[in-house]
Amino acid sequence: MSLGSGVVSIVGTVGAAVSGAATSPGDVPAVMGIGVGVASVVVPMYLSEPAPKEVRGKLTSLMRQLVTVGILVAYVAD
Prior knowledge:
3 helices, 78 residues, mainly alpha
């Protein structure tokens, strides 16, 4: 595990703990926002580094599209 993925894991774990212990909606956004923001930068980097150069753009574009579809589905379900 590299330093970047370790930091994302720690921030995500802290965010989950804060979300679980939250007593008001204002307790959650800061930590979870940092975790999601860091992950949105780190994940495409880890997807593209080992991939052959012919498919790098396709992989990162697919990841972004799947995130967008996931957000849409969550919005519609809510």
